[in-house]
Amino acid sequence: MARVFYEGISKRFGDTYAVRDLTLEIDDDEFFVLLGPSGCGKTTALRMAAGLEEASEGNIYIGERNVTDVPAKDRDLAMVFQNYALYPHMSVYDNIAFGLRMRKYRKTEIDGLVRDAARTLGIDEFLKRKPGQLSGGQRQRVALGRAIVRRPLAFLMDEPLSNLDSKMRVQMRAELIRLHRELDGTFLYVTHDQVEAMTMGQRVAILDQGRLQQVGSPQDVYDRPANLFVASFIGSPAMNLLEAERASANGLRAAGVDVALPDSLAQQLANAGAASVTIGLRPEHLAIEVTDPAATFEGTVDLVEALGSEQHVTLHVADARLIANLPAASRIEHGSSLRVSVAKEHVQLFDATTGERIGP
Questions:
Q1: What is the CATH number of the domain that holds 255?
Q2: What average pLDDT does this structure show over 200-207?
Q3: 40, 146: one domain
Q4: Per the count of CB atoms within 10 A, which of 150, 168, 260, 295 is most buried?
Q5: pLDDT confidence of residue 125
C-alpha cells in the first residue's frame, strides 16, 4: 500500500473553487476520512486523487510518484462508489473478476483471487447470483470485493454506506474496520456522516467551502475544534455557542450569566486580544449537578427529546437557547424550570471575529 499526498491542490469550475490550496497527507496503511457538509469539496478532492477530475493547481502523489497527469487507469487505485456501480447482467463472480480480466490475469489466478475476496467479505455463497438478487449490504460487499481483489496501492471510497438502512450501516462500518485491519490498506474515505467519521477514521480532515479546516484524530477534533465552523459541525447535538463579553479579568458574561474561566484560559484570552468572544459548551457538559461550576444557567424547558438511555433538553435562557444532554432518569417536563451548570475545564472560547479557537 502507499501514502496519498495532496500538495497545494486546487480545483476550479469557471471562477468557482471547489477545492482551494489543499495540502494533506494520508499515511501508508491509514484509515483516513474526509468529512464535511454537502458541497464542501470532499468528493472533488477524492475524484482528483482517483484521476476522475483534473486538478487546476498543485500536485498529487501516490507513494513517491507524482500522478497529477497520470490517467486514472494507470494510478493503481480502487474506488468504491455510493451507488455500487455493479454490472447488472453479470454474476457476482464476474463483477469481482472484471478488473482482473481487463488486466489479463491468468484464469486460475483470477479464480483464486475472486474466491479469496468473497470469503473475506462473506459473500462466497452468492457468487452465481446477479446483483439484482442481493440486498443493499450484499451489493456493497460485492463492490468492495471488486476493489480489494486487485490489492491496489490505496482504496478510495465515496460515501459507500449512504444507501443502506441504519442497521446495515452499523454492520458495514464494522466490516470496513475489520477489512482495513486485515488488508493493512490505505483507505481514503469520504462522508458527511459524523458517526462514520468518528467510529472509523484514525484521522479526520474537515473541509468547508473547499478549504481545509482541521486535521486530527476524531477525539481531538471533537474535544478541541480549531474554529467555530468545526465546533458547530462536529457533534450531535451541536456545541452550544454563546456570544460573550468581558465581565472581569477572569470571567465573561453570556446569556445574562457570569462565566468564570480557569486562570490559564483567562490569560490566553487576554493574550489573544479578541475584540469579541464566543463561548462553546458541549451539551453533555451541561449537568444538573456540577462541583465547583464555572456558570449555572436557569431557564424554561422548551423541548425534551427522549432517546431511551438519554434525553436532549432544550432550555431557553434569557436571549439564548441551550441544549443539554441529560440522563434519562432525570424527570424533566416541557415548560418546567431547570438549572444546569458547566465545570470550568469544559468551557471553550473562540474569537467571534476570526472564528479561531482561543486556548489549547
A1: 2.40.50.140
A2: 97
A3: yes
A4: 295
A5: 92
Cis preceding-peptide flag for 262 (omega within 30 of 0)? no
- The model carries a pTM of 0.92
Quick: pLDDT tens for 85-135.
889 999 999 999 998 998 889 999 999 999 999 988 889 899 999 999 998
192 and 316 part of one domain: no
- Give per-residue pLDDT as tens, 342-357: 999 999 999 999 999 9
Domain-terminating residue out of 184, 200, 229:
229
Q: For 270-307, how does the pLDDT look when each residue is reduced to its tens digit (9 = 90+)?
A: 999 888 999 999 999 999 988 889 999 999 999 999 99
Structural domain range at position 253 = 238-358
Task: Report the domain count for the chain.
Answer: 2
